[in-house]
Amino acid sequence: MDAVNAFNMELFSMIDMKPPISRAKMMSVTKSAIKAIKLYKHVVQIVEKFIKKCKPELKVPGLYVVDSIVRQSRHQFGVDKDVFGPRFLKNFSETFQNLYRCPEDDKTKIVRVLNLWQKNGVFDMDILQPLMDMANGIIAPRPAEEGNITATEGNVHSQ
Prior knowledge:
Low-confidence stretches: 143-159
CATH class: Mainly Alpha
Helix content: 55-70%
Mean pLDDT: 89
Order of helices and strands: HHHHHHHHH
Oligomer: single chain
CATH topology: Serine Threonine Protein Phosphatase 5, Tetratricopeptide repeat
Strand content: under 5%
Radius of gyration: 18 Å
Shape: globular
């Protein structure tokens, strides 16, 4: 748990910083996340909490933390052994709703990260497309909600 607490302190030390966040700081946050890999669920939850609670101008740096952790994990342990990417996916829709509460100018930076993830095959397009749509104000239904059409909606009554 010490590694998780160290990561928490490292990440939340950004809370009072003004963007841009230095490369050295990003690497330090990423390194402490990787050190806490045994408790990766806690690390992901801490990042999600940071993105939810931080000031609007720190939303994009929060996304950069997600990106940096996932890329480092995939590089260090291999795509098939990366635990961070799949865990971030569990709450991606909510996380991105929080991310898009950033200044209007920053939305293009979010889309840029999504495009890089697509280009580099970090996440599948079926995951990325709804997140890209959010940038344009389109809120796609969650997969569990898509099949909830009532029987009467499909029936046409003629007389």
